[in-house]
Description:
The chain is mostly helical. Helices cover 57% and strands 0% of the residues. The protein has helices at 13-24, 32-38, 48-67, 90-111, 115-140, 153-157, 164-171, 181-195, 200-217, 227-236, 243-246, 254-259, 264-279, 297-308, 314-328.
Amino acid sequence: MRRAIVKQKALSREEQVDYLAARHFSGWPDGLFSLIARNPGNKDIGSDSFLQSVWSDIKFDLQWGFDLGAKKIREVDLHGVEWDADELPSKARDWLKKRVAEAQEFLKTRASWSTKELAAAYREEYRKATLERIAAWDKEALYNAPESTKPDFSRWRQRSHWFLEQAVVLSLGRDPDAVNPTAVKALHLKALKELGRTTDFLSNYFDRMKHLEKAIAAKHLKDPLTPNEFIKWAQARDLKLPSELTGRAGNKTNSELDADYMHPRKLHVLYSLLLAIAHKHDENIKNYDPNKRESTVPSIVSHDLERAGWPVGKKTIQTHLKAAAAWARGEKTTDADPVNEL
């Protein structure tokens, strides 16, 4: 995927200076630097007539920003200024003289630069501005939204299988329910249109998808994947994974990952204990299926466990109680599948 920053068009020396000034004096009121640099009317720089002319052009925009508490302008020197005065207020005169001196120093320094030096400074500033724009865009992107950055890893880890896109999104610490394939494609196209390149997150997503699809094509993995298979594969490639995804031991060896899956005999003992607890509240618990009928049992059991000092969430109880009931009915169970909320 394309990641290189789009090459900017060639600009004249004057345009490059204007660009650098806009960046350097970004906290100034709009148009102030241009008024000083261009000096319409060819007045004496720093004279009262020049300062009065500049003040008349900017004071309304300046006052508007000042009244709103805008922090863009260097307003500390303008507290108590007489905005409606016909003559140039003394505080405004002092403030403008400082700005004129700064602008003249900037122009003097840039004028001493060779064409090559100015072009290099422009390219570097353009690069910084582009990266700032990308960072701002990236910060607001869907994959960095609160609903995307807090996946329920325990719920996803309990699923028997993941689709490829789900596995990749989880490996990047995002929620597949929010960051789905349709959303990823739309974000990529939007980034190319607005930024001229894709973002680091999207680049990582497409890179992992590419290698995962190759592993599927080579029959090293199956589609859909089991969580265990994907984590083994990702760790073998030294891919960074969220610790919540790999479990309490972090990056484990293959043998350690295999040991994560409880032996059926031990699992069925725990199923029996869970069913015995739930049976106190529902004698028909053997037929429990949260996708078919609502039940207060998970909430009650969760509450009892919390009171005893071993808190377990309602959804986790639902998931395992569903699997336990299926086992009690003699149905084949593998990994605990998540339940659909009613």
